[in-house]
From TrEMBL:
Segments forming domain AB hydrolase-1: 53-293
Protein name: sn-1-specific diacylglycerol lipase ABHD11
BP-aspect Gene Ontology terms: lipid metabolic process
Any one GO CC term of the record: mitochondrial matrix
Organism, scientific name: Drosophila melanogaster
InterPro entries: AB_hydrolase_1 (IPR000073), AB_hydrolase_fold (IPR029058)
Designated gene of the protein: Dmel\CG2059
Amino acid sequence: MQRLTKSLRSLPFPAGKILRTQLVVRREYSSEIPDPVELSFDSYTGENPETSPPLLTYHGLFGSKQNWRGISKALVRKVSRKVYAIDVRNHGESPHSSVHNSKAMSEDLRLFMEQRSHPNAACMGHSMGGRSMMYFARKYPELVERLIVVDISPISVPRSTGEMTEIFDAMVSLDLSPSMSMSEGRKIAREKLLKATEDETVDFIMLNLRKNPDTGAFSWACNAHVLREFLTRFDKYQSNLEELPPYTGPTTFICGTRSPYMRREQWPQIQKMFPNSEIHWLDAGHLVHFEKPQEFLTIVSEFLNRTE
């Protein structure tokens, strides 16, 4: 956790404008592809005129739009684009839904663009968010000006559903007394999660723990119950993606050399899905944008500023 904080502090946080928006939708979701939900987001603008399509960013599993705050602030100094950092459904401050898959998250993004009259946009996603953005680009290529995928493969994921189920089981079975302080609750929750996974993942998950100031009740910001239910369906991602044509727009993958989420031997197969793609390797783990923020910013801004 200290490493993440130190990396974020090293970013050049320029003067910029941030608009915080929270939208809440009260609906019931029962189908595999429900009506889209209206997503919570932060938007960032720089001092330069916005002459290019905006950049839309999706975070990974257990994440939120706050994960992209430092990167977004730095990016608007380097590119002539508005940047939206978005909470995906069942995460952060976006609505909870009984459905969680790339198809549904793609429909959420389509609605997001439609409501803001954006004919197209650059799209960037990390991990789960990267898979959603890849699906979105192949489903709606006319809406995607260019694509950035951060440390995730469209072919396979390294974690077994068994390990992930243990993590979610620890989350949903957590029973903390409202009389506990936040620090006491965090200590107990962390100890329980450490029995299911390693330190770095636990620190990331712990960012989701909330305590109601009125009732004292503890809860998770992410919808752990639904995410657990849809775990076994993550493996169907590739078969769903194969139903769609390749995305031929400019695409860049940014991956960590110490991360198991992208395997070098898969690259020829990935290029068939994204024929106008390139890949960059940084000396990092899965959280490549936290561990190597300056290198990450250089690659992303150069890619976004290209004129092809």
